[in-house]
Amino acid sequence: MKHSQAPSVMKKTTVRRCLLSICLMSVCLLVYHFSAKSDFHNDEYTSFTIANNAEAGMITTFTQNVLYDNIDEPYMRGMVVQPGHSFEFGNVLTADAQDTLPPLYYLLLHVTFSCFPGTFSIWYAAAVNIPLYIACILLVYYLARLLGLDEPEALTASALFAFLPGTLEMGVFIRMYLLAILWTITLGIGCVLLIDNDEPVIKASVWVFFSLLGGALTHYYYLVLAFFMCLATGVVLLWRRQWKRAVSLVAASLLAGIAAVAFFPAMLRQLFSGRLNNEGLTNLAESNFCDRAIESLTTIDSILFGGLIVALIVLLLVVCVLKRESNSSKAPWIVMAFSTIAYFVFIAKSAFFINTRYFCPIYPLLICGAVATVSSFHGLMRGEEGHWGVVVLAAALFLSLSYRE
Description:
Elements lengths: L11 H24 L6 H11 L21 H6 L9 H8 L7 H11 L7 H25 L4 H13 L1 H8 L4 H19 L5 H16 L3 H20 L3 H21 L2 H8 L1 H12 L2 H16 L4 H14 L4 H24 L5 H4 L3 H20 L5 H17 L1
Helix pairs in contact: 1-6, 1-7, 2-5, 5-6, 6-7, 6-9, 7-19, 7-20, 9-10, 9-11, 9-17, 10-12, 11-12, 11-17, 13-14, 15-17, 15-20, 16-19, 19-20
């Protein structure tokens, strides 16, 4: 696998135009899917009511796949910001304290809905998700470049993220999972920057701090991935005796945790005595891991790689066995691989039920890994660096098969 930012093979203007094209096409796809949305998952109704409900005792449980479109209904009253209650963020925090998940996404929803009190539109939610999706596309490119992919390969990773059905599903789902994906990418960037001695330690620590803070206020499953990623990064730094960077990682993590609890103290109760904690402990003790892992892997495979994940794993094993690289180039990939596998195992074992959205934080890591695997294997067969045209063809295959699935 590659590491240390690859030399440029494309002009910056060409890269920017390609990224702009990918972003514009993804916006068109998101607009199409949002406009086709005729009803909402019951969890999406919960998002609306926690973000906007200012009335005590308002009903916040909804029947799945039922459309509530009458502004006079009690349901709809709880889903819009009532006149005179715009930008009342305290109400959002109070309502969310009774829920099981942290408040950051709800606060973002409240901002857009507060601009149009008394009205409901799917586009108020789209105004949150679409910019987040664009940010993820651009950040995937940056992460891929830091991991050593050249510009065409990094652009391919961004395009896969933009157009694969698994990521598009999260783009139009009005919950916090897209935001959790974004924090995963930024944390990956921060960890790679910490491992790279050429990058300023302050810059890397800032990336880590805000990623952990934002992620802790977005979804608690994110903390599982963050724990494994920071653990692996810390081990690498200690192994290399990079004491200053290791201390910076610990300090950024502690400060982020303190800041998150200070902002939303109810997270301690939600984490340690809430439904997610109880369900997780029960499943860790009782669930059949093998069956759940196979089901999870098959589901992820169908929406990201079109059934080719086994082939990718075989190629990866061949690359790991035959390709000789320095420890410094392997370290960031080891961190990404360890955190991805550990997170998958934990969620497959402990999640209340198998659902793609619980695994979505690792999607960008899987996509970057798939692109690097194809490129490295092709280069191994050629006896030189792989040609990016093969990577593009593989990406086209993933896309076509994933939509067929």
